[in-house]
């Protein structure tokens, strides 16, 4: 609680993201924070600034007029994870922090998925007053309460701050189970129009150990499912407003399947007509589950396939093999579920022979689209980071904030497109420009991810 004399305080939540590829993404983290804080701290007046739709000038005007006591800045992406471009967003974030300092007296707190991968480094680089890594709901509320009430911040989970001149990092909580979510009505219209989907989370955490992946670092390894009734209520509220296509943002949707069945049953019995998609992998999944999810509106799947070579799947630490990929792809075709395979070509363990296998095996998958990433983005705290140091791909001192990639020395990235063409399948590389065709389809009011129109 904020006690009496501090009752009316003001918080601005800023979504810093301006990246619109493959489409602009509704700032879900900000909405989760705003919804939770509104319930817990009724005395706190909250405003949201989305830099996807607002200019720096509009942000400055907001700061001067609203005069927030606190500004929470959400850093979703650090870079574009596009081997061909390697665009970093750090300068943009620096600018937002300095604009905030120059135009307000507010305390600056940063957080978000990107921040959570590099908490100490980004704290040091951007120099906010506080950082929060991992889930933000409890920690942000507790931080504001502690600052208002003049109490200690030492036990606030996930908090980063300076103490006696040193950057101090508290262990994170990793246990939040009851997110609440109200969409910002001012923003939903923009994202529904330009993205063709809104986004909701049904669970947090991933228990797997793929060598390159940050998701368990950001969200934790313990899977926490959210309240299915609350999710269905949010879906129902959206459909009343004409929004009927959702992306479930879970790291992997098909974990905790008893929860997934419960959610599907609730959606079906509610009578809500909604289409949705999500990230899936090939463990813990069968025709029965897919069929029930389809009845509950599952329209498209983005498979984290990564490779169509068993040798490489093993090297990448994936918990499934090519037989699983072929089997589940065929079931999706039978059930009429659109699906795309997301691959990482040229990562750890890839050779020319394994690439041949992947291209050859792609011919066995019908009615799909292949989205290859090229090389593996190296992140701190992953097994890949250790491998890259051992193999001298990077030095021990490389901080990795500037995009660094592991590309197997055995392959030639320049050969990939030509080889993909020979498969007769639809391959879309990160530098293939789809923006024109996407914009045309969005103008025709097409919803969903849109790659389903490219399936062959
Ligand atoms: C779902 C997802 C997608 C989907 C989004 C679909 C949709 N309609 O929403 C798709 C496939 C489109 C996508 C695309 C991209 N993504 Co993506 N995506 C994710 C994923 C899995 C979940 C994000 C999410 O919505 N989480 C749920 C919300 C509720 O959580 P949250 O935003 O993190 O917010 C919580 C905390 O972070 C914190 N918090 C957030 N803001 C703030 C602010 C303050 C002040 C505080 C205190 C706390 C706080 O509190 C919130 C509530 O607990 C993350 C990985 C992950 N597991 O986090 C990657 C991730 C965010 N994506 C990433 C990237 C790079 C991209 C792309 C640039 C490249 C790509 N092709 O993958 C594009 C960019 C899209 C865009 N326009 O911005 C990276 C970002 C790191 C980096 N290297 O920059 C991540 C972290 C994955 C990774 N590689 O490690 N993505
Ligand atoms: S790649 Fe997917 S399954 Fe593997 S650890 Fe990351 S989120 Fe989990």
Overview of the structural elements:
The protein is of the alpha/beta class and 456 residues long. Helices cover 38% and strands 18% of the residues. The protein has 17 helices and 17 strands. The protein has helices spanning 28-40, 56-66, 90-103, 113-117, 119-126, 137-149, 185-195, 215-219, 228-240, 257-270, 287-295, 310-316, 322-335, 352-362, 383-390, 416-421, 435-443, and strands at 9-15, 44-50, 70-74, 107-111, 130-132, 159-163, 166-169, 198-200, 203-204, 224-225, 245-248, 275-280, 298-306, 338-345, 369-374, 376-377, 405-406. The strands form four sheets. The chain has a seven-stranded mixed β-sheet, with helices on both faces. A six-stranded parallel β-sheet has the order 8-11-12-13-14-15. A two-stranded antiparallel sheet has the order 9-10. The longest helix has 14 residues, at 90-103. It is globular and about 65 Å long. It binds cobalamin (B12) and iron/sulfur cluster. The site of cobalamin has 44 residues, from helix 1, strand 3, strand 4, helix 4 and helix 6. Iron/sulfur cluster (SF4) is lined by residues 206, 208, 210, 213, 215-216, 251-252, 281, 304.
């Amino acid at each position: 609680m904020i006690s009496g004399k501090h009752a009316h305080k003001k918080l601005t939540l800023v979504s810093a993201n301006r990246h619109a590829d493959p489409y602009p993404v509704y700032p879900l983290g900000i909405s989760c924070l705003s919804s939770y804080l509104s319930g817990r701290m009724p005395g706190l007046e909250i405003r949201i600034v989305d830099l996807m739709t607002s200019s720096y000038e509009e942000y400055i005007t907001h700061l001067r007029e609203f005069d927030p006591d606190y500004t929470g800045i959400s850093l979703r992406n650090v870079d574009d994870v596009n081997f061909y471009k390697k665009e970093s967003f750090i300068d943009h974030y620096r600018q937002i922090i300095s604009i905030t300092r120059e135009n307000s007296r507010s305390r600056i707190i940063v957080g978000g998925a990107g921040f959570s991968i590099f908490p100490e480094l980004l704290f040091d680089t951007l120099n906010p007053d506080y950082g929060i890594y991992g889930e933000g709901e409890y920690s942000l509320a507790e931080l504001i309460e502690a600052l208002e009430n003049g109490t200690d911040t030492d036990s606030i989970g996930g908090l980063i701050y300076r103490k006696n001149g040193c950057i101090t990092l508290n262990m994170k909580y990793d246990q939040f189970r009851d997110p609440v979510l109200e969409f910002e009505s001012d923003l939903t219209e923009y994202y529904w129009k330009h993205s063709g989907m809104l986004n909701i989370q049904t669970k947090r955490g991933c228990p797997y150990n793929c060598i390159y992946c940050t998701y368990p670092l950001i969200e934790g390894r313990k899977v926490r499912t959210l309240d299915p009734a609350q999710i269905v209520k949010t879906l129902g509220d959206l459909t009343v407003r004409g929004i009927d296509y959702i992306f479930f943002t879970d790291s992997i949707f098909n974990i905790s399947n008893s929860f997934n069945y419960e959610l599907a049953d609730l959606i079906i019995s509610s009578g809500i007509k909604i289409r949705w998609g999500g990230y899936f992998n090939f463990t813990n999944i069968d025709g029965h589950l897919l069929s029930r999810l389809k009845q509950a509106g599952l329209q498209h799947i983005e498979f984290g396939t990564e490779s169509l070579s068993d040798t490489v799947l093993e090297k990448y630490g994936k918990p499934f093999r090519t037989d699983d990929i072929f089997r589940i792809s065929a079931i999706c075709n039978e059930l009429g579920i659109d699906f795309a395979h997301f691959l990482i070509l040229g990562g750890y363990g890839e050779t020319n022979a394994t690439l041949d296998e992947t291209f050859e095996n792609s011919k066995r998958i019908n009615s799909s689209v292949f989205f290859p990433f090229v090389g593996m983005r190296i992140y701190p705290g992953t097994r890949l980071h250790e491998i890259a140091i051992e193999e001298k791909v990077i030095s021990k001192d490389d901080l990795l904030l500037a995009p660094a990639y592991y590309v197997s020395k055995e392959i030639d990235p320049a050969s990939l497109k030509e080889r993909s063409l020979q498969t007769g399948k639809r391959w879309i590389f990160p530098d293939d420009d789809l923006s024109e065709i996407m914009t045309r389809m969005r103008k025709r009011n097409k919803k969903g991810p849109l790659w389903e129109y490219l399936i062959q």
